[in-house]
Amino acid sequence: MWTKNQNNISVSDAWEFQDEITYSVEVEAGINENVVRQISKSNDEPEWMLELRLKALKLYEEKPMPTWWPNLEKLDLDSIYYFAKPEWAGANKSWDDVPDNIKATFDKLGIPEAEKAALAWVWAQYDSEVVYHSLKQELTDAGVIFDDTSIAVNKYPELVKKYFAKSIPLADHKFAALHYAVWSGGTFLYVPKWVKIDEPLQSYFRMNKKSGGQFEHTIIIIEDEASAHYIEWCSAPKYDENSLHAWGVEIFVWENAHMRYSSVENWSLDTFNLNTKRAIVEKNGYMEWVWGNMWSNTTMLYPCTILKWDNSKADHLWLAFANAWQNQDTWAKVIHIWKNTSSNILSKWLSKWWGISTYRWLVDIKPWATGAVSKIDCDALLLDDISVSDTIPDIRVANPDATVAHEASAGKINEEDLFYLMSRGISESEAQAMIVNGFLSPIMKELPLEYASEMNVLISMEFEGGF
């Protein structure tokens, strides 16, 4: 069952094609001080940012590889190209300014069709640089900032310096330090007090370079009484050589503010996807994470919400599919610091053809978190007898007044349900996809319609050819 978009290109093709690109700046493979200085110079950064990068590089060199997560011995960090700037890079505000071959790439991925669906803003990053950026004037007039983080460093220096590396320390772990040493691009979103953005803001991140890396740094600031919904979609072509994605996302949700962060990550089987994402939520603030993880060689993604003050809350909603030889290792972390905080963690996991799905979660309720409430629900569906699904809970309760509910389940597709659907003339692969989509529906219904539809297509593709 193949699905075509408006350009008559299969969804599968849209993630397998590659572009021939000329780069104006392309550093040597591997990471060293010279590479870090080249990146900083290319981005025309102030001295404080270069100093931060060099400090992070030193930490990266000193820190050992983590030992508690999946084996990374196949990832050769010395063969990765940590920065590649296309010769036509720049935040083009007109779609006509983007080169024809790159327009074709993003057409296949849904740009500029997404704009036609009345999105607030659209953003596209290609390798290390932003290539397209559109916005609605009324949001600019309201004081909203939605820019390339590399540009924002110079354009809004005091605002960036106030928040940069404030939720994720440079020394958090080895790959966080690596990210800070070589980061480039990413989204800088600032929503001032009282401004409520009803339409979603959308970004696309595309890796194209062979053995390349993408290290965007996203900062989102939602001030008091404000709200926004940010959506991202990520993809990369298949080259049969490893690539690396090591993102950093810092989110700050102030009093009575609401932030929803939706992400569909659909990397190629060559990609090691190692990310660090963290939100800090103030009094009465609300943070929502909605995730969909597909493909990639190895994903290690552990978003964290820190419920810093009274009545703050967080929802983590997650689905992931580990297919042939893939390793999806993820972790939701919620830290309850103060009174009457609440969290809800809901995850749905699929494993097929030796795929490994590991779901870790940490709920840490501090002594001052009187009245804290947390609910955890983790369900896994094994689609054969050779795949693996593990759950590793870590629940720490230091306040006797807290309420924590934990439920987990694992199982296989019900053969009676499968037989019933097939007896009605539905093929085995379509029946399997229907059952799986029903299993995932609590998460899918939280995705915007266009994303949920695309996820349904991608999941259906996983069942082509049956088991």
Could you please describe the fold and organization of this structure?
This protein has helices at 11-14, 33-42, 47-62, 100-109, 113-116, 137-141, 149-155, 157-163, 174-182, 415-423, 428-444, 449-462, and strands spanning 23-26, 84-86, 121-126, 129-134, 145-148, 187-191, 201-206, 213-214, 217-222, 227-235, 243-245, 248-253, 258-267, 271-281, 286-295, 298-301, 304-307, 313-322, 327-336, 342-351, 356-365, 373-382, 388-397, 403-412. The protein has 467 residues and is an alpha/beta fold. It has two domains: 11-301, no CATH class; 417-467, no CATH class. Helix 10 crosses helix 11 (428-444) and helix 11 (428-444) runs antiparallel to helix 12 (449-462). The longest helix is centred in the last third of the chain and has 17 residues, at 428-444. The protein starts with 10 loop residues before the first helix and ends in a 5-residue tail after the last helix. The relative contact order is 0.09. The model is unreliable at 1-15 and 115-121 (pLDDT under 50).
Brief account:
With 467 residues, this protein is an alpha/beta fold. It has helices at residues 11-14, 33-42, 47-62, 100-109, 113-116, 137-141, 149-155, 157-163, 174-182, 415-423, 428-444, 449-462, and strands at residues 23-26, 84-86, 121-126, 129-134, 145-148, 187-191, 201-206, 213-214, 217-222, 227-235, 243-245, 248-253, 258-267, 271-281, 286-295, 298-301, 304-307, 313-322, 327-336, 342-351, 356-365, 373-382, 388-397, 403-412. It is 24% helix and 36% strand.
